[in-house]
UniProtKB/TrEMBL annotation:
PANTHER family: 4.1 G PROTEIN, TYROSINE-PROTEIN PHOSPHATASE NON-RECEPTOR TYPE. InterPro entries: Band_41_domain (IPR019749), FERM/acyl-CoA-bd_prot_sf (IPR014352), FERM_2 (IPR035963), FERM_central (IPR019748), FERM_CS (IPR019747), FERM_domain (IPR000299), FERM_PH-like_C (IPR018980), PH-like_dom_sf (IPR011993). Residues 1-176 form the FERM domain. SUPFAM superfamilies: PH domain-like, Second domain of FERM. This is FERM domain-containing protein. Signal peptide: none annotated. GO terms for cellular component: cytoskeleton. It holds the Pfam family FERM_M.
Length: 176
């Protein structure tokens, strides 16, 4: 969170931070945690002035959670965020608009202006290929239909990562 590798709405970041505080500091108590007790903590690269106060409010709601439960809840919420586990690469779509191509364990995710606009599961990706600076992903759309999506990006960055993910996935399910 602090490094900014999990961009999301401030509310989600505050909830994640509150679980981290619960795990580290334990149950909220007015005696142990006076007003402003989180003001010196940095949770996100560009947190607002009111962010620590919001985290403190949420921290108080986690009373009774053990550190293990708070850490579980942190991970349970984090895994639902669009950018969780995604390594993002800059690219351009077929209309030359800037996009981000994300690669994760699920497959490939396309982002435009920070919002997820499409995703392709590894199971639906039939072929990944390159031609000059264009990167092509052939998707299985139905029983016999295939669709090819053209993306412009660095061959080295996303292409190699995508191929490595796909190779690992295929290696994991190959019959003996």
């Amino acid at each position: 969170m602090l490094e900014g590798r999990l961009p999301s709405a401030e509310g989600s970041l505050a909830l994640l931070a509150s679980y981290a505080v619960q795990s580290e500091l334990g149950d909220y108590s007015p005696d142990d945690h006076p007003e402003g007790y989180l003001n010196h903590y940095r949770f996100a690269p560009s947190q607002s002035v009111d962010f620590p106060k919001r985290v403190a409010e949420l921290h108080a709601m986690h009373r009774g959670q053990t550190p293990a439960e708070a850490e579980y809840n942190f991970l349970d919420h984090a895994k639902r965020l669009d950018m969780y586990g995604v390594e993002l690469y800059p690219a351009k779509d077929g209309k030359d608009l800037p996009i981000g191509i994300g690669v994760n364990s699920y497959g490939m995710v396309i982002f435009h202006e920070g919002k997820k606009i499409n995703e392709f599961a590894w199971a639906t990706i039939m072929k990944i290929s390159f031609k000059k600076k264009s990167f092509y992903v052939q998707i299985k759309c139905g029983d016999q239909n295939r669709s090819t999506t053209k993306l412009k990006c660095s061959k080295v960055s996303v292409g190699e990562r995508s191929c490595k993910h796909k190779d690992r996935r295929e290696g994991a399910v190959k019959p003996n």
